[in-house]
Specification:
The complex is a heterodimer.
Chain A (H helix, E strand, L loop, with lengths): L5 H8 L1 H11 L7 H13 L4 H18 L4 H13 L15 E6 L6 H14 L4 E6 L6 H12 L2 E4 L6 H15 L3 E6 L7 H17 L4 E8 L5 H13 L3 E5 L8 H10 L3 E5 L7 E3 L2 H9 L4
Helix pairs in contact in A: 2-3, 3-4, 4-5, 5-12, 6-7, 8-9, 10-11
Chain B lengths: L4 H11 L8 H17 L4 H15 L2 H4 L4 H18 L14 E7 L5 H14 L4 E6 L6 H12 L3 E2 L6 H14 L4 E6 L7 H14 L3 E7 L6 H11 L4 E5 L9 H9 L3 E5 L7 E3 L2 H8 L5 H11 L2 H13 L3 H13 L2 H8 L3 H6 L8 H12 L3 H5 L6 H11 L3 H28 L5 H14 L10
Parallel strand pairs in B: 1-4, 1-5, 2-3, 2-4, 5-6, 6-7
Antiparallel strand pairs in B: 7-8
Helix pairs in contact in B: 1-2, 1-5, 2-3, 3-5, 5-12, 6-7, 8-9, 10-11, 15-18, 18-20, 20-21, 21-22
The chains are: A alpha/beta, B alpha/beta.
Chain lengths: 302, 464
């Protein structure tokens, strides 16, 4: 398969969502009441949440009246900018602005371990020195899974036995990384539901130990599955309250899921999206560009 | 948090009060609320559309329009409709009688919880007297087989790993292994796959053809959004499954996906998975799921949970309380029981109307730290003070406050709560004496119920 550019693979990852939105834009001429209703529906179908969908539609409607936009392509452009404006931009990319220490948090099965593995691979390719910290000492075989990723990427995994205190693992990882002068530290934590207060407290401790101990700037990143629905907002809120998140990574955008929840979370909590996962390979974990994402989502010039 | 549907409908209908009867327009308003509630619960958009249309038709029945409590009626109709839809077919795990071993295959997306569900299912079947074997056919994710092996070891179920390379071969090998070791059920855990990944879908079909499973269960994450329709449709077309296990329902996701799955594929939900422990796989209850989707709380769930926790000792205590009154020690026991049931937040989330009541409370509100506070204050009391809180005078209050690291006001507040509870207890006592029973089963139940309602929350308002 020929290597695709970022925009291309992003587009193919988002193909389905674009098709859906294209359907409503493919009406040629006039824009009528049905158009607005369909637009709102499509945004809802994209997991953007009924509230955001309504707000965006209303804004666009107003703008159309004000600027006298009547053609579908004009509206498409306006919608793309409108959606892109919902995303805050990242001041700093914790994966390239080294030295840096990143903690990955999220619910079970969001793709934290896989993301850590891929990012470690990318870091090695870019010539950064990197270590992986295995603070998921809870799930069966999580450490083994991480070690396989470490071997693939050629990155050392620092961890302890299953059942060890995750905060002390982080302490060890940070200490070892500082001793070695490592540029990028990636720490995987155990998945947990945001509703389990004990586990959230444990995680808060892990984060605060790392923040206190580490001389490198620490970022806490929430990994969220693109197929997640409206509950994603609850998740993000709880994690944000407990840990003061720095940003998001959205995984599994290569399916038919539209990832609208990413927009809802990002805009409501003011969290930048650092990376999006649009496929299985290392290169499919890409830097997020709001403008590009929205244009691909809306169907640019197609 | 979202308000429950019944609260919102109540608000809608409050505005219409005094109108005597509802017009079609009013019904439309109510339907709009229902539509929003379902969308917030992640029911698929198209499913919502057709479902709401059906409900509206029912609501337009004259019988309903003439009723005295419209909100209640609308909710009932929606709830009934939802329950019927969720549970209109048999949802038990059907095993073939004349085949050994029976084969159960699990499929689903990445991260939906298949491996965990496989272990839970094995544990459940083992408890029913079966001898299951787990087959580790996820040959893609690193260390997936290790995970299954560890989980199997914890629950005492053997795991067949084969060469760990070709999933189809592992599955075949597992059947042979089961025959050799007299296992009567093989649970095949497969790799997670996207429904649009052609190669992986073919692998699932190949495993299916190789082992001819008696049941294929699809594991679906309760938090899945609108896309669930595409996912289950494709899996149903390609692999075809017999039922669904909904995972991660121990969170606060409303699980509207369950409705979408039923509506789109017609497949029943067979189990719900409620936590990380091996015994947290439960049989699916359509009525509870319906309430959860509508945000109406799981009252039955709480009662069951409370019954699990309440043991004989506590029942005796309840009787003693009826006879002798309520002590601070009893209050402490109640607090600890609430803890055991998963903390206040979880319980409150399950009580209808509680979210609304909570939102009206001051920001300091109810959380588990309040339990801790009460506990620490009670721990600072002497034995005598706990047994007879009436003797706690100003001096003692000061000492308790200092000892527990709280202010005198907080101690006062606790004592006030206690005295209110004691008053209520007096009422219960009066009631049971009237009934003539000396602490019969019914009054015990009433006791437990009452105490659950107290716990210092007060002001909880029921939805209707």
């Amino acid at each position: 398969m020929p290597k695709m550019g970022i925009l291309d693979s992003l587009k193919s990852g988002l193909k389905r969502s674009r098709e859906a939105i294209n359907e409503i834009f493919y009406m040629g001429g006039e824009v009528d009441e049905d158009f607005w209703e369909d637009l709102e529906d499509t945004l809802v179908m994209g997991d953007m949440g009924a509230e955001v969908a309504m707000r965006v539609t209303d804004d666009l409607r107003e703008q159309a009246a004000r600027e006298n936009l009547t053609r579908a392509d004009q509206l498409r452009d306006a919608l793309a900018s409108r959606l892109a404006a919902e995303f805050p931009t990242a001041e700093r990319d914790p994966f390239t602005d080294v030295p840096s220490c990143v903690l990955f948090v999220g619910i079970n099965g969001a793709g934290k371990t896989t993301t850590v593995g891929k990012l470690a691979g990318r870091a090695r390719e870019a010539g950064l020195s990197c270590v992986i910290g295995g603070a998921d000492t809870f799930r069966a075989a999580a450490i083994e899974q991480l070690e396989v990723w470490g071997q693939r990427a050629g990155v050392d995994v620092i961890t302890r036995e299953r059942g060890a205190d995750p905060a002390s693992v982080c302490y060890d990882v940070v200490e070892e990384a500082e001793r070695r002068g490592t540029e990028l530290v990636l720490i995987d934590t155990a998945g947990r539901l945001h509703t389990s207060s004990d586990l959230m407290r444990e995680l808060a401790k892990v984060v605060s130990v790392t923040r206190k101990r580490s001389k490198l700037p620490v970022s806490v990143v929430l990994v969220i599955d693109a197929t997640t629905g409206q509950n994603g907002l609850n998740q993000a809120r709880e994690f944000n309250e407990a840990l003061e998140l720095d940003g998001l990574i959205v995984t599994k955008l290569d399916g038919t899921a539209k990832g609208g929840i990413a927009l809802a979370i990002s805009s409501q909590l003011g969290l930048p999206i650092y990376r999006i996962g649009v496929g299985e390979t290392l290169d499919d974990l890409q830097t997020f560009d709001a403008r590009e994402f929205c244009r691909a989502l809306v169907g640019e010039g197609m | 948090m979202f308000n429950s549907l019944s609260d919102r409908l109540q608000d809608t209908f409050d505005k219409l009060r005094g109108k005597g009867r509802l017009t079609e327009e009013d019904i439309n308003l109510a339907m709009r609320e229902i539509r929003m509630a379902l969308l917030e619960a992640d029911v698929n958009y198209r499913v919502v559309k057709s479902f709401v249309a059906r409900c509206k038709e029912k609501c337009l029945d004259s019988e309903v329009l003439d009723s005295l409590s419209p909100a209640q009626n609308v909710v009932r109709i929606v709830l009934d409709e939802l329950t019927a839809l969720l549970g209109s077919t048999e949802s038990k795990l059907t095993l073939a009688q004349n085949r050994t071993p029976n084969v159960i295959m699990l499929v689903g997306l990445q991260g939906s919880g298949k491996t965990t569900a496989a272990a839970k299912l094995a544990y459940l079947l083992k408890g029913q007297g079966h001898s299951p074997l787990l087959a580790a056919c996820d040959t893609h994710r690193p260390a997936a087989a290790d995970q299954l092996a560890t989980l199997g070891g914890e629950i005492g179920v053997s795991v067949f790993r084969g060469d760990g390379r070709d999933a189809v071969e592992v599955a075949r090998g597992a059947i042979q292994e089961a025959v050799d070791h007299l296992n009567d059920i093989v649970i095949v855990d497969t790799a997670g796959r996207l429904q649009i990944d052609e190669e992986m879908m073919q692998e699932a079909v190949a495993i299916k053809q190789a082992v001819r499973p008696d049941q294929i269960l699809m594991v679906v994450d309760a938090m899945t959004g609108q896309d669930i329709v595409n996912v289950v449709t494709e899996f149903a077309n390609r692999v075809d499954f017999d039922g669904v296990i909904m995972s991660k329902l121990d969170g606060d996701a409303r699980g509207g996906g369950a409705l979408s799955v039923r509506e789109v594929t017609g497949k029943p939900i067979k189990f719900v998975s409620m936590g990380e422990k091996p015994d947290s796989l439960e049989v699916f209850h359509p009525d509870r799921m319906a309430k959860r989707i509508l945000g109406m709380g799981d009252v039955v769930g709480i009662i069951e949970q409370a019954q699990k926790v309440a043991d004989e000792q506590q029942l005796e205590d309840a009787e003693r309380m009826l006879r002798e009154g309520f002590t601070m020690d009893d209050l402490l026991t109640q607090m600890q029981q609430i803890r055991k049931m998963g903390g206040l937040q979880k319980i409150m989330g399950m009580i209808p109307g509680m979210e609304r009541a909570m939102s009206q409370m001051p920001a300091a509100g109810m959380d588990d730290s309040q339990l801790t506070r009460i506990e620490s204050i009670i721990h600072s009391m002497t034995r005598e003070e706990r047994a007879r809180p009436k003797i706690i005078n100003g001096q003692r209050r000061k000492r308790i406050a200092d000892g527990s690291g709280h202010s005198v006001q907080e101690v006062n507040q606790l004592i006030k709560q206690w005295s209110e509870m004691n008053k209520m207890m007096g009422k219960v006592r009066g009631m049971t004496q009237q009934m003539g029973g000396k602490g019969g089963r019914k009054s015990r139940r009433a006791m437990q119920q009452m105490m659950r309602n107290m716990g210092g929350m007060g002001g909880g308002r029921l939805p209707f």
